[in-house]
């Protein structure tokens, strides 16, 4: 046998060859995903669903700290070197902590596999066995999961980069988008800022929701996101995700 590739992996490679590349920035929320929505390329969404399944099976919550990132944004005080083909730049990676009940497992705990609870071990074992997913602990980054697209398909990575980066820019800088297509508002890093955020805050404050500020400041921070979720809950909107899309905007009277 010359080819010792697993059948699943081979199938995935064939699928990649048959279907043309689809690249589009999407937001993902899963039953086990908490803290903030994931920003991801449409082709990474099925893998996020898989991660969600593995987390559900093991009774864990994925506490998202970072996903798609704009080029050159400081992370913990350091600028990401642009030369590095990070999967975060194309929306094919997440950074996370793991939460069980009220206990949050951060990089410190996650880096010591043998000391982890068996459910977290089972979760990462499932990730390791998956034909595409890849856990960062294997290159000493235990909070990171990606699909190795940068390593396996560097040309696809290069094609996706400008598309995802321009969509990220469109999300965080309202002026770049058409005025008549309101953007989706949600908690991200850096925080979304603009008059559209301010309008949402003014409506929430007028209805008595606590935003931790007395006057709208136009910054979509955690308190604003939580107030949106409470508003959605009160209005029986679905989903309750703390994000402002068409339905929530309409319910707010905007
Ligand atoms: Zn990462």
* Secondary-structure element string: HEEEHEEEEEHHEEHHHHH
**What small molecules does this complex bind?**
zinc ion
What structural class is derived from the secondary structure elements? alpha+beta
How many beta strands in the DSSP annotation?
10
Give the uncertain stretches in residue-range form.
Answer: 77-81, 175-180
Biggest sheet character: 6 strands, mixed
Q: Can you tell me the CATH class of the largest domain? A: Alpha Beta
Oligomer: single chain
Cα separation of the termini: 64 Å
Helix content: 25-40%
- Strand portion: 5-15%
How many distinct helices?
A: 9
Q: What is the CA-based Rg, rounded?
A: 19 Å
Label the CATH architecture of the largest domain.
Answer: 2-Layer Sandwich
Number of domains: 2
What would the principal axes of the Cα set say about the shape?
A: globular
Mean pLDDT: 84
CATH third-level topology of the largest domain = Muramoyl-pentapeptide Carboxypeptidase, domain 2
């Amino acid at each position: 046998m010359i080819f010792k590739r697993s059948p699943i992996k081979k199938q995935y490679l064939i699928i990649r060859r048959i279907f043309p590349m689809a690249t589009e920035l999407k937001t993902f929320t899963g039953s086990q995903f908490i803290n903030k929505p994931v920003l991801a390329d449409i082709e990474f969404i099925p893998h996020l669903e898989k991660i969600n399944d593995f987390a559900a099976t093991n009774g864990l919550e994925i506490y998202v700290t970072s996903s798609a990132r704009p080029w050159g944004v400081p992370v913990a005080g350091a600028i990401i070197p642009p030369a590095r083909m990070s999967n975060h730049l194309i929306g094919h990676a997440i950074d996370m902590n793991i939460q069980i009940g009220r206990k949050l497992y951060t990089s410190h705990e996650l880096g010591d596999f043998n000391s982890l609870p068996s459910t977290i071990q089972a979760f990462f074992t499932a990730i390791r066995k998956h034909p595409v997913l890849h856990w960062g602990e294997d290159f000493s980054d235990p909070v990171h999961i990606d699909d190795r697209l940068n390593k396996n398909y560097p040309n696809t990575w290069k094609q996706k980069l400008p598309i995802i980066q321009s969509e990220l820019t469109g999300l965080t800088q309202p002026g770049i988008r058409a005025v008549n297509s309101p953007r989706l508002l949600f908690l991200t890093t850096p925080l979304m800022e603009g008059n559209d955020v301010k309008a949402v805050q003014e409506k929430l404050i007028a209805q008595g929701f606590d935003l931790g500020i007395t006057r709208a400041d136009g910054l979509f921070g955690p308190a604003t996101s939580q107030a949106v979720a409470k508003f959605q809950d009160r209005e029986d909107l679905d989903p309750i995700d703390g994000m402002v899309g068409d339905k929530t905007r309409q319910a707010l009277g905007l």
